[in-house]
């Protein structure tokens, strides 16, 4: 057990933007909510996964919907607490702790305010180890756990309990209800006992996010470049350093899809890498050759500071370093690749781990 | 014949130009910017009248681009206490107003804030009705404690009625107290728009003081001019409009330079490199106007989303200090001797090697009284290459495509560039480039904008764009443009992600000529 302070929140927000791989929403609002919570209620207890009792009820809490709407109709405290109370009522058990469902972008910090208001601890784990666009893209789903019940709430006092037959239906129904709720909602799904969370969640991801933030915000004693330190920490690979020369976005099926091209500079002069994104960056290719493939993570960082750049922030001429690093092993299973691999997102390539693709490449 | 005066108050100098009715430069003058700003303006007005020898009575228009409002925020001076109303309940209570503000600025603006019932969904349907009694009692509670009011409602850029209703109630309870409405100031993003609206309200006394001080100065000098204030999209607003939207003056300096550069060079699409003593600012001239930033902008440490020019600042100016260490390694800045160039630079007998020295040593450029004979020409050549490379990288960052573009040089430090620049199709240094900012201020175009989310159920995309256009034109006319000259200069749209594909954010800008009545 340790305490999350205001400083932890600042670091997590930055780390979550790296793990957001370009999507996941801007962690800024999550950060403000979390800071407000700590100001009002004091530091938050953070439990490691081992500290959970087997029969304790652990409840993930997140926001669903358009980030554009989320930053305009920001949540109320009641709305953040409502799905939690409703799922407790439905299951007939009190929550012992809350957890983030994803550790990329805004949702990394959304549960903090509810945890603080209810006096509950937060679990240092999540179910993606990154950000993904759809709600069945969680390790709980991979391990065959049910999203039943899923509870959605809005700010007006509406709550909806759905009992989807699987994670895909959970996503589909929740998305439709969210639209009716005004385009954004708060959600609790995959509320599971401690014994399951211990086996199925990805441990230590808030701490990981915090470490990334700390690495990027503070200089090292020996003056090592922040991106170099980040790559060492993430076991990652530099794909190239270059400048953005082309960016194309289209909106299909409610998702921002597109590509951006990075032309190598300095040591990488002459190379061109294309990044394919669908909210998140999902595929990096050089000519026909894939360099990194979802569910492995691809992040675009400012070449000087290492600060992550979101898909909306991509602009011609920006100097960037593109990095890739391995996802949690749970995503590399057959079901993991089926759920969040390149085919699911419509890319005509087979998944191969980034370590293999980068063999002999400049780590 | 009617003349016009343009004044630009910069960090170092206050520049002025006098133009005739065909926009020819008749006279120009520079004075140091003074701490109180107004003294510098007064002096530069006198200087320009002396130089031009025309009768003050013939000056019909006076345009001022000023840093007063930026300074007020940075120095936390002269800011109004603001009554803050957020129309949101039961939504949007998780983060209170002023949440991420620095403590001293929060203290200056005050903490009279009220979260009340109200707000709209993205499609314009109600979150909740306004409760008139609730709002009246909030207004009664802040009466006497605040000097202006800021009202922000959820999705007010899509539908403004509730904010307008609150303005009427506020006018009832506190007649004469200025009211800032968020839909007239910022775009989507509640907290950022609320911040911009609060800053706008906080600046309303400052801007009144500027306008009345300027008016008084002109009248003392016998200049019967109509007053305009420069805003940060490179256009002007009438004094009354400026008094309502002081925040739009923030960042008008670089945009004046960009507009001036466009006028002086005759180009509508180019990069503008404005080199001063400490930094070089690069802006993009697109279709005759400065390109705006697409991301949230910090003003005095506060995240806002009102429109701001897209400017890249590079730490390289005429006074930038160049260091050469024992191994011969060269560093360029980022520090600068600033306005003490003539005392401290090596060519003028000082001890510090500056960017200006380097240029004088390796190019044909000369300045009277400068002596570069004891400078190491090899080292200077290397330093010069480094300086140019720094500018070239910055230029490349501001381009929108690989194609080379013209680069227009402005500002007192533009002697730094004396060669070709990679990425530039040509480098242009127009006449009067040293006062391009003041010329930009004097040009006199007037703009209006509209930014809304449109639900495309029951209306076509074309309908929605047309509605936005009409609103933008209306705003331009209200700001002082001649209706017949107003045209649409840009239409942008952004579909909303994660929504069922039929809501779109549309942003339109209209521009017209100054109503020279």
From TrEMBL, chain A:
SUPFAM superfamilies: CV3147-like
UniProt-listed InterPro entries: S-Me-THD-like_C, S-Me-THD_C_sf, S-Me-THD_N, S-Me-THD_N_sf
Pfam families xref list: S-Me-THD_C, S-Me-THD_N
Gene3D superfamilies: CV3147-like (2.40.390.10), CV3147-like domain (3.40.1610.10)
Superkingdom of origin organism: Bacteria
Domain S-Me-THD-like C-terminal, residue spans: 166-354
Signal peptide range: none
Annotated ranges, domain S-Me-THD N-terminal: 8-163
Protein name: DUF917 domain-containing protein
Organism: Shouchella clausii (Alkalihalobacillus clausii)
């Amino acid at each position: 057990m340790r305490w999350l302070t205001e400083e932890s929140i600042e670091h997590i927000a930055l780390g979550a933007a790296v793990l957001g791989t370009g999507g996941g929403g801007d962690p800024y609002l999550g950060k403000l909510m979390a800071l407000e919570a700590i100001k009002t209620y004091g530091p938050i207890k953070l439990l490691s996964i081992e500290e959970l009792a087997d029969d304790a009820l652990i409840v993930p809490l997140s926001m669903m919907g358009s980030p554009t709407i989320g930053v305009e109709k920001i949540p109320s405290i009641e709305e953040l607490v409502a799905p939690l109370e409703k799922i407790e009522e439905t299951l007939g058990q009190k929550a012992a702790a809350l957890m983030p469902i994803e550790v990329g972008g805004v949702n990394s910090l959304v549960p903090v305010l509810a945890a603080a208001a209810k006096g509950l601890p937060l679990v240092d784990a999540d179910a993606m180890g990154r950000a993904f666009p759809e709600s069945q893209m969680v390790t709980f789903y991979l391990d065959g756990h049910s999203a039943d019940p899923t509870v959605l709430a809005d700010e007006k006092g509406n709550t909806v309990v759905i009992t989807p037959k699987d994670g895909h239906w959970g996503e589909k129904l929740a998305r439709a209800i969210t639209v009716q709720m005004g385009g954004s909602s708060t959600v609790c799904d995959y509320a599971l006992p401690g014994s399951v969370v211990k086996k199925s969640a990805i441990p230590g991801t808030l701490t990981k996010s915090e470490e990334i933030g700390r690495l990027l915000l503070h200089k090292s004693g020996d003056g090592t470049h922040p991106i170099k330190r980040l790559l060492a920490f993430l076991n990652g690979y530099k794909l190239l350093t270059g400048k953005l020369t082309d960016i194309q976005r289209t909106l299909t099926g409610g998702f921002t899809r597109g590509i951006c091209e990075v032309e190598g500079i300095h040591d990488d002069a002459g190379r061109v890498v294309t990044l394919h994104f669908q909210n998140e960056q999902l595929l990096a290719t050089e000519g026909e050759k894939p360099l990194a493939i979802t569910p492995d993570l691809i992040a675009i960082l400012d070449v000087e500071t290492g600060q992550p750049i979101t898909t909306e922030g991509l602009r011609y001429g920006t100097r960037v370093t593109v990095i890739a690093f391995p996802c949690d092993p749970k995503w590399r299973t057959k079901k993991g690749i089926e759920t969040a691999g390149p085919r699911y997102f419509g890319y005509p390539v087979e998944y191969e781990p980034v370590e293999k693709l980068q063999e002999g490449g400049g780590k | 014949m009617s003349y016009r005066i343009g004044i630009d108050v910069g960090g170092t100098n206050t520049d002025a130009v006098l133009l005739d009715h065909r926009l020819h430069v008749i006279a120009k003058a520079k004075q140091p910017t003074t701490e109180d700003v107004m003294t510098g303006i007064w002096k530069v007005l006198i200087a320009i009248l002396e130089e031009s020898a025309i009768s003050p009575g013939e000056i019909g228009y006076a345009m001022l681009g000023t840093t007063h409002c930026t300074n007020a925020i940075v120095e936390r001076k002269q800011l109004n206490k603001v009554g803050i109303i957020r129309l949101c309940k039961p939504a949007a209570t998780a983060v209170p107003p002023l949440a991420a503000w620095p403590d001293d600025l929060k203290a200056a603006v005050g903490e009279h804030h009220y979260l009340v019932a109200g707000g709209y969904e993205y499609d314009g349907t109600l979150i909740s009705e306004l409760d008139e009694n609730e709002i009246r009692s909030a207004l009664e509670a802040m009466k006497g404690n605040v000097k202006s009011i800021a009202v922000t409602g959820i999705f007010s850029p899509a539908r403004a009625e509730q904010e307008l209703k609150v303005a009427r109630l506020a006018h009832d309870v506190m007649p004469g107290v200025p009211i800032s409405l968020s839909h007239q100031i910022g775009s989507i993003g509640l907290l950022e728009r609320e911040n911009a609206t609060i800053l706008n309200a906080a600046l309303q006394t400052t801007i009144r003081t500027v306008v009345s001080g300027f008016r008084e100065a002109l009248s003392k000098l016998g200049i019967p001019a109509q007053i305009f204030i420069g805003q940060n999209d490179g256009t002007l607003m009438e004094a009354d409009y400026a008094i309502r939207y002081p925040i739009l003056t923030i960042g008008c300096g670089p945009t004046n330079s960009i507009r001036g550069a466009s006028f002086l060079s005759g180009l509508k699409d180019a990069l503008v490199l404005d080199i001063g003593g400490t930094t070089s600012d690069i802006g993009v001239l697109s279709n005759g106007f400065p390109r705006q930033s697409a991301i949230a902008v910090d003003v005095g440490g506060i995240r806002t989303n009102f429109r701001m020019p897209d400017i890249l600042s590079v730490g390289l100016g005429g006074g930038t200090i160049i260091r050469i260490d024992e191994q011969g390694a060269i560093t360029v800045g980022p520090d600068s001797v600033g306005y003490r160039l003539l005392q401290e630079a090596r060519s003028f007998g000082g001890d510090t090697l500056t960017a200006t020295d380097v240029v004088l040593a390796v190019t044909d450029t000369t300045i009277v009284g400068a002596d570069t004979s004891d400078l190491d020409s090899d080292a200077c050549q290397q330093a010069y290459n480094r300086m140019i490379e720094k500018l070239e990288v910055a230029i490349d960052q501001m381009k929108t495509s690989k194609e080379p573009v013209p680069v227009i040089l402005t500002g007192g430090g533009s002697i730094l560039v004396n060669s070709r620049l990679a990425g530039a199709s040509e480098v242009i240094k127009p006449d009067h480039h040293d006062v391009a900012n003041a010329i930009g201020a004097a040009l006199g175009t007037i703009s209006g904008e509209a930014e809304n989310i449109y639900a495309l159920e029951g209306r076509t995309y074309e309908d929605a764009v047309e509605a936005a256009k009409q609103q933008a034109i209306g705003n331009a006319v209200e700001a002082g443009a001649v209706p017949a000259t107003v045209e649409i200069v840009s239409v942008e749209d952004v579909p909303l992600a994660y929504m069922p594909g039929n809501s779109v954010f549309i942003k339109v800008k209209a521009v017209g000529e100054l109503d020279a009545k």
